[in-house]
């Protein structure tokens, strides 16, 4: 599944129930120019039950917690078998630019979204930079271990 809408998803390896998706931030939102990786785990009774969708790339947002869980009605009580992978990712992409502050998973992000736009945008970038620095450090350690297994 791919297209020019800023979302894509493909099976992860041979397991057709496990997919990796990407979402690009929409133009005119604080997420413009950013790209996020998501995991989609489809239950055996899909499409009658929703997939478990989580952000793998940290995303500072009122409706996304620190573990990547997403508060979106179509992934819960408003699920319909009419939703496919593309419509799920497009809904999440839309949520990035239009959070639902009535049901936040991240109350701090919800407060900043409502009251301090500049600090909100800074926090988005800060969470990504922290992730990238940790990821880079782990990558360095894995690729530079000596024979004894020590990085330094």
UniProtKB/TrEMBL annotation:
Family, similarity comment: Belongs to the ubiquitin-conjugating enzyme family.
Residues covered by the UBC core domain: 1-133
Keyword Signal: no
Active-site positions on this chain: 71 (glycyl thioester intermediate)
SMART domains according to UniProt: UBCc
Organism of derivation: Musa acuminata subsp. malaccensis
Full protein name: UBC core domain-containing protein
Classification via SUPFAM superfamilies: UBC-like
GO molecular function list: ATP binding; transferase activity
CDD domains: UBCc_UBE2C (cd23791)
Residues annotated as transmembrane: 119-141
Keywords: ATP-binding, Membrane, Nucleotide-binding, Transferase, Transmembrane, Transmembrane helix, Ubl conjugation pathway
A Pfam family that the UniProt record links to this protein: UQ_con
